[in-house]
Design brief:
By secondary structure, the protein is α+β, with helices and mostly antiparallel strands. Among the domains are: 1-131, no CATH class; 265-372, Sandwich (Immunoglobulin-like). It has 17 helices and 8 strands. The strands form 2 sheets. It has a 5-stranded mixed β-sheet with strand order 2-8-7-4-5, with no helix packed on it. The protein has a 3-stranded antiparallel β-sheet with strand order 1-3-6, with no helix packed on it. α6 packs antiparallel against α7 (112-122), α13 runs antiparallel to α14 (217-229) and α14 runs antiparallel to α15 (233-242). The longest helix is centred in the N-terminal third of the chain and has 15 residues, at 50-64. It is globular and about 80 Å long. The two termini are 37 Å apart.
């Protein structure tokens, strides 16, 4: 998809993809009605978002493949092509398999054994992280037993699926409420994956744990403390990423796991400029921290901007600055230029905004600036 970076992802689910899929299928199943397949899809696509477009493809596959999920999958499996050769090809190279994965999710639930094999194959070429979720809801025990074996699969994409597919709050997917309430079944899977040789898999483990912090922070902190205590650098990397939301929120127990205690520092020379600030320009933060401790200390230094909302209230967002090791009486001076530019995820309102310096989760001082929109 690199030929046109400005093209929206949904726009790849178009007539070209319909013809590409038809060609893949007819190559292994000549009776497939390619023209009818394309003709059914194309008129429906205008005005639809990506998932809706994929659903159009899924229905057309169902209408034109042999009847019965097992028969349809036999054709699709033969058409899949080569497995991914690297960890970053899931959406870059395997994106066109999305409707096939969704086909499993939509029509395979009543044919568990065939669907399990189908998910195992499709995830080697794209991902089954969305397709697997109905099976975890309706066949939880059976699916978990299979995932315990997949955690030792030779294919890293399959091992990643064990973690990614069971994330309780996976983006773009429905929540797995049973695992939100009781994450112990998925934690047992993560224990098998915490020392996986592929960073690709370990990253998913960290994201999964970060999901669980939203509902069971102490459970994740306890797990991470144990992993950190006897862990390799790779396992400690998982812990750092798993606790990132709690660290930004200033959770003292999460910070303690990573070796960050209450900060013993004095904030001086804290300024923000220019003031007022015009939207589209950068806000400059300047400040100095001086250690008041008698021993060396580890610091996580962040800043918080409290953005003004339409109702006149403010909402704080934490931005990462740096980590530092400060010796007794040592000082560190930091200058940061932070752009305040229009973005799709935030509406800016004119008025007074606050900025705070946060060190090891504690807010040390604040300044205000006027934003002109």
């Amino acid at each position: 998809m690199s030929e046109d970076e400005k093209k929206l992802f949904k726009e790849y689910f178009d007539e070209n993809l319909a013809r590409r899929m038809a060609g893949m299928i007819t190559a292994v199943h000549p009776p497939f009605p390619a023209d009818a397949f394309v003709s059914q899809i194309v008129p429906q696509l205008d005005g639809l978002e990506m998932k809706e477009r994929s659903t159009v493809f899924v229905q057309a596959l169902h209408d034109h493949l042999p009847a019965g999920f097992a028969n349809a999958w036999a054709v699709l499996e033969a058409a899949l092509g080569a497995e991914l050769s690297s960890e970053d090809g899931m959406f870059a190279d395997g994106w066109h398999h999305w409707p096939i994965a969704q086909f499993i999710e939509t029509f395979g639930l009543e044919d568990f054994d065939v669907s399990v094999r189908a998910m195992h194959e499709i995830t080697k070429r794209h991902t089954a992280e969305f397709a697997i979720r109905p099976f975890l809801i309706h066949h939880q025990d059976e699916m978990l037993a299979i995932l315990h074996t997949w955690a030792e699969d030779e294919n890293m994409h399959v091992r990643r699926l064990v973690s990614e597919g069971t994330r309780p709050r996976l983006p773009w997917a429905g929540h797995l409420y049973a695992f939100i309430e009781d994450p112990s079944p998925t934690l047992a899977l993560l224990e098998k994956l915490k020392d996986d040789p592929a960073e690709y898999v370990r990253r998913s483990v960290s994201n999964h744990l970060n999901d669980i912090t939203k509902d069971h922070p102490q459970l994740v902190i306890q797990t991470c403390a144990r992993w950190w205590a006897d862990g390799s650098p790779e396992r400690r990397w998982i812990v750092q990423r798993a606790l990132r939301t709690l660290v930004k929120d200033g959770d003292p127990d999460a910070l303690a796991v990573l070796g960050y205690g209450p900060p013993q520092v004095q904030l001086t020379d804290f300024t923000v400029s220019p003031n007022p600030l015009k939207l589209g320009n950068s806000l400059q933060l300047h400040f100095t921290l001086q250690s008041t401790a008698v021993t060396q200390q580890n610091l996580i230094i962040d800043f918080v901007i409290h953005f003004l909302k339409a109702n006149g209230q403010t909402s704080g967002k934490v931005f990462k600055l740096k980590t530092a090791v400060l010796a007794p009486n040592e000082t560190i001076t930091i200058t940061k230029n932070h752009p305040i530019k229009p973005i799709t995820t935030r509406t800016y309102y004119p008025g007074t905004h606050l900025v705070e310096i946060q060190v090891n989760g504690q807010r040390l001082g604040e300044r205000s600036f006027e934003l002109i929109v």
